[in-house]
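On to our target:
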Amino acid sequence: REILANALDTGTKVDQGWANGEAIVRDRGDGMAAKALLIGESTKTENEIGQFGEGLKIAALVLARNGRKFTVRSNGNQYSFALKESKDFETSVLTVAVTNGLEHQAGTDARFDCTAEEMNEARSLFLKFSPVKKYDERILAAPGKVYVKGLLTGSINSLFGYNFDDKSMMNRDRTVLDDSKVFQKVGPALGYCRNEEVIEIYLRASVDKPQADKYVFRQWFHIHYPEVWK
């Protein structure tokens, strides 16, 4: 998830694939500086998914702990991560072997060991790689699923799925949603909706007892296009 998110944050074309136990994720961004591997160092903006710039480092540590090969190639350098015993710290520490002077290529190339199932599970978290039907920019044909900037983050009791841009509705690790903030966004999303298919689904479900008992219809919202709803 973290490696795919980093690639998508570049806003460029992202290629990703899997073969023979190895996943490859390649973007066309400006590349990665060596200092980006330092804890506390980040070039991310608050608008990007990985604002704190820690995902790649944590991913490298987790992969190394599980004995999985992980290399990143960018701006003519290759970084290979591994755990090594340290006499000073009397434990294993994450190390980075740097190979310089490689042929320069656009963007960043990340390669790591994983199963096909793990790669598919990671892909499924992103609308970019596992698209669903969109009724409009915020409302999706994915009941209950809530995405934040295209990343599946949690679920609610809802007829529709939603994709919002507000990162404050999830925790730092992007694993827990603030339901109150989510529902504050759901109301306006429905209120500004002009998609007649959404409106029909909503109205029919709200008066159908089994459906009404199953989903939440307590949400109040102001309809901005009453002529469409009528």
The CA atoms of residues 39 and 54 lie 7 Å apart.
